[in-house]
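Subject: Protein record for review, amino acid sequence with backbone structure tokens
Category: Structural biology, sequence-to-fold work with a learned token vocabulary.
Format: Residues in single-letter code; tokens as whole numbers, each standing for a residue.
Body of memo: The sequence and its backbone structure tokens, given next.
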Amino acid sequence: MGRFMDQLKHAFALKSAKDDACVALPESLDRLARAVVERGMEMPAIAILESMRPLNFLASQTMHAAWPLVCMVGLKDDYRAIANALEDRETLHRMAARIEALSSQQRNRGVA
């Protein structure tokens, strides 16, 4: 009975913040973050990312469902990596944090 209670205790545990810090963004999302910062679109991008967080998993499943169409068009290079990354509910938060970090680095370079 004790072993069962130990397993049940962690059945609904959420990931800790240190687990998320170790997970890097896929290269395709990092390139997207850099493109957003290069164009000076940090604030609109972060607002969109934060407003879309509740639909994160739904978006990933829609992308997986559209996979056959994407293959026909030929846009499959980064598509699968992005769809898989969106399955994790913290991906959009990490994306927004990456955009903020790149923006901060760009401002610091401009001041120096």
